[in-house]
Amino acid sequence: MKILVITGTGTEIGKTIVTAAVAAASRDLRVAVLKPAQTGLAPGEPGDAAEVARLAGAHVTAVELARFPEPLAPGTAARRAGLPPVRPHEIAEAAQKLATEHDLVLVEGAGGLLVRYDGQGSTLADAARLMAAPVLVVAPAGLGTLNSTALTTEALRTRGLACRGVVVGSMPAEPDLASRCNIDDLPVAAGAPLLGAVPAGAGALAPADFRARAASWLSPELGGKRPAG
Q1: What angle do CA 154, 159, 164 make, to 5 degrees?
Q2: Residues annotated as part of the active site
Q3: Cα separation of 218 and 17, whole Å?
């Protein structure tokens, strides 16, 4: 696994923190984190790739291909800003180049799998197909996650893409009944293993604490120590 694409079942569910956890658990590797399109930030503000590097450590190279100021889908944000969009082949080419210089490349998408990156309807799934890369799905813990996770993994299968597994992006310290049950039910809904659960608030940890704990949140398939579900 040289390139791993990380997507979510939606937005604001913990993709960046999961990406940071995978990078931190891979501390013995040279890791690159590629953010194809960062939206909703002004020039100079630290983006998702920079946050991954801050939390995960100095072995991580952070790369951002494009930035658009409004917090919208990349294709919409590019159009409204009058800027060229990011195309799937550009994502694939950047990731493949990074893969020649690093042991692991993590490509973090924007929002969900089928969010549009350009006016032609291109998505992260198109880039993943060009790279022939497996996809890790980040899902929320609570009620509704089984449906959104099943829809995402079904979309992967219909496009011939491999789902590496599912990680819960923000597991509450005191999970409710749905969240507890979903730990058992997510692998069934996804048709793929549960490869971890990152605790809520993990991104607020000091970087040294984050790095020390990251492996305990993830299964060995992602460089961690947690048994796969």
Answers
A1: 65
A2: 35
A3: 12
**Surface-to-core class of residue 188, CB atoms within 10 Å of its CB (0-12 exposed, 13-18 middle, 19+ buried):** exposed
The Cα–Cα gap between 3 and 19 comes to 13
Q: With cut-offs at 50, 70 and 90, classify the pLDDT of residue 1.
A: low
Is 168 in contact with 197 (CB distance < 8 Å)?
yes
188: left (phi over 0), alpha (psi -120 to 50) or beta: alpha
139 vs 13: CA distance, rounded Å? 7
The DSSP symbol for 113 reads T
Joined together, the tokens standing for residue 98 give 């990074």
Instruction: Please give the structure tokens belonging to residue 148.
Output: 């959104």
Q: What mean pLDDT value characterizes the chain?
A: 96
Instruction: Answer whether 211's CB lies under 8 Å from 24's CB.
Output: yes
Amino acid at position 73, single letter:
A
C-alpha to C-alpha distance for 45 and 33, rounded to whole angstroms:
17
Contact 158, 28 (CB under 8 A): no
Q: Which pLDDT band holds residue 178 (cuts at 50, 70, 90)?
A: very high
In this prediction the pTM is: 0.95
pLDDT tens for 35-52 read 999 999 988 899 999 999
